Amino acid sequence: xxxxxxxxxxxxxxxxxxxxxxxxxxxxxxxxxxxxxxxxxxxxxxxxxxxxxxxxxxxxxxxxxxxxxxxxxxxxxxxx
Length: 80
Fold this sequence. Notes:
55% of the residues lie in helices and 10% in strands. The mean pLDDT is 81. It has one domain. The chain is elongated. By secondary structure, it is mainly alpha-helical.
């Protein structure tokens, strides 16, 4: 327990208030770290994709499906 500002005795109410403040600060820190983790995971995903693209040779590439857009903006698959 902490000493209360207005007395020389330990004050449970002041202790609870202090602990609530500490919890609120820790909750903010947890949220900040979650955002950092999300950013880190996104960056890691981008780097993995870039690494795969950098080492993918032209022979290894399989041509994907080709599409053509009509006047209405609809896509139609082009058969080879």
